[in-house]
Amino acid sequence: MKKYAYNEITLMQYIFLINGTQVATGIFSLPRLLAEKAGPDGWISILLGGFLSIVASIFIVKTCERYPDDTLYELSIRFFGKVIGKIIILIYMIYFIFYGWSIFVNSILYIKGWLLPRTPDYLIMILFSIPTYLVARNGIRVIGRYNELFFYLMIWILFLFFIPFKDAHWLNFLPILRDGWKPVLSAVPSSIFSFIGFDIAFFLHPFLQKKQHAVKGVVIANLLTMSFYLFLTISCYAYFSPDGITEFNQPVLSLLKTIEFRFLERFDMVVLAVYLPIISTSWIPIMYFAAFCSSQLLNKQNHSSHIVVFLLLYIGLIFWMHPTWIQLGSYQNIAAKSGVLSAYIFPVFLWIYSWGFKKYHRRKIH
Hints:
Layout: H1 11-22, H2 30-38, H3 42-66, H4 72-80, H5 82-115, H6 121-136, H7 140-160, H8 181-195, H9 201-204, H10 214-240, H11 251-257, H12 267-278, H13 280-297, H14 304-321, H15 325-365
Helix pairs in contact: 1-7, 1-10, 1-13, 2-8, 3-8, 3-10, 3-15, 4-5, 5-12, 5-13, 5-15, 6-13, 6-14, 7-12, 7-13, 11-12, 13-14
């Protein structure tokens, strides 16, 4: 009998879990960050960042394929022993808690800044914590269905960005590579930060029904994310120009402001109100895997109480700190740099180590 047979997920749920974890509020400011560093060629940095994310994701899957029923917890103990293995999982747990906190708080600040300016931030977090707990406590299968549902609900938003195309200036992209590859490469770190989240594949692999399709799943998930980022960045570049885009903190929202109907002027507010709950497809899986790590460290089967503790921690922190946009920016920088280690560097190291580990044991047997 399979270890996680009661909580298996389909390939589509696997794809949307990874994609949902990657796509968060960072997309609102990504075009500006790329334009500041790479000018009109910032969209090329997204292609390079997407390629690196696909490669790192494949390393994760290939490592998991050696022991398909093991999560990162079992893999770490198998390769490094109990002490070091548990330290690795403790680090991932702290990373997931901090990363989930930064996404959650970012969403709260958007809601408070654009929709509910007079509502206390901790009260908004309490309201969002209730559905977060109700979804996360039911396990990865329910979270997978939740992410799949919200992906379909989000598709219509992309078609809105075709409306400003009538005023687009496609000459903004010419000449391509005007200043060479150096600015493009300097913007790659900003793009790979936006792809962070696919490292949950370390934990998703044992739950996947058809594990032979895991590589296909991570490739499709990263391609979906890359296509989403690329489309929105090109839309902003074409409308504002790479120089003009730097004047807006969130150019994606500023682009939505240009869309007006006779019956509705501030259409960007409607889209933001719809999109922000969709960001829960990012923080809910991350919180679940933080609880998954803590429950495995404590050898507990039920992770529901751990999710409650983390949510209370989040509420207590926001009540005590009342973080601002500037403070949140520093938190996100820390989370992004930690994500590079956990999602890009560690998977490559672990694959090399697992290859040597298996080869050594084969020689020992013979």
